[in-house]
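Sample pair:
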Amino acid sequence: SLPVDYTETMEWVLRYDKSDVEELRQRALIEDKECDVLFFGSSSIRLWRSLADDMAPLKVVNRGYGGAQLRDIHYNYETVLADYHPKAFVFYCDNDLGGFGRDLQPTQLFDLYRLLVERLQADYPGCPIYILAIKFNENRVAKREDHRLFNALMADYAKWAEGVTFVDVNTPLLKPDGSVDNGYFESDLLHVNRKGYAVWTSVLKPMLCSYLGK
């Protein structure tokens, strides 16, 4: 079973309904719900401020929020996705393997990812899902083997799961010897910088444009 050690109902609600989630709730009231690609997940998505320009001419919407764990996203599923009508999804979330003391095992996180895929496929039949690899980084170097195992599990899953594509945005951020190239990261050594997002764009955008015929 997944580790849940919050004893008070309100503590649970406050943990999973953050200010960033309220911002998503308010934006959903005014944003155009038609888009080519809906990006969602944790802060690596939220902080992709050049996303719209990077993905042009694709019309995209950014529904990432800071500190999100996949457990949060399941809890806030209806708020995050609201009533948007995308033609494809891109997802990234690594905080369940963040070294916070309540981490999941890679196999547990893999199960939550599969559950998310099943929910999306039930609610958005035929809509492809692009799952971004967890990026190795020096901030969470102690979790490196967990990240490696999770990526291997997802890569294998995507080989046979219909409508699911695993996008390796991790390897291009590494040096030839396999170590992390910090030139692609912000000073926190956790989030990618503009150069890092440019690499992600170079890997992901051709896939999306090919599928969407743009």
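The longest helix spans residues 194-212.
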